[in-house]
């Protein structure tokens, strides 16, 4: 569920970047239109939400790395028999 939310937020960030570029090209030279500025505000909000979700996921141990070398050495079953 958390990974899905992260993917949705990342896709929303990309869409916001696209709309910001579109408005930037469309409103060139027009100082009365603030659509590019509003798109930047939406992008900042999405980025902070994404950062908060990632921090929450790492803090609750729902996200993290599971590398084999982080587990440490495992003793063999024959060594524990003694």
UniProtKB/TrEMBL annotation:
<protein>
    <submittedName>
        <fullName>DUF2909 domain-containing protein</fullName>
    </submittedName>
</protein>
<keyword id="KW-0812">Transmembrane</keyword>
<dbReference type="InterPro" id="IPR021313">
    <property type="entry name" value="DUF2909"/>
</dbReference>
<feature type="transmembrane region" description="Helical">
    <location>
        <begin position="37"/>
        <end position="59"/>
    </location>
</feature>
<feature type="transmembrane region" description="Helical">
    <location>
        <begin position="6"/>
        <end position="25"/>
    </location>
</feature>
<keyword id="KW-1133">Transmembrane helix</keyword>
<dbReference type="Pfam" id="PF11137">
    <property type="entry name" value="DUF2909"/>
</dbReference>
<keyword id="KW-0472">Membrane</keyword>
């Amino acid at each position: 569920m958390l990974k899905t939310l992260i993917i949705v937020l990342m896709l929303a960030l990309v869409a916001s970047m696209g709309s910001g570029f579109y408005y930037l090209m469309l409103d060139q030279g027009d100082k009365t239109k603030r659509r590019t500025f509003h798109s930047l505000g939406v992008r900042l909000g999405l980025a902070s939400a994404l950062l908060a979700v990632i921090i929450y996921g790492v803090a609750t141990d729902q996200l993290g790395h599971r590398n084999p070398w982080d587990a440490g050495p495992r003793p063999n079953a024959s060594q524990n028999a003694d």
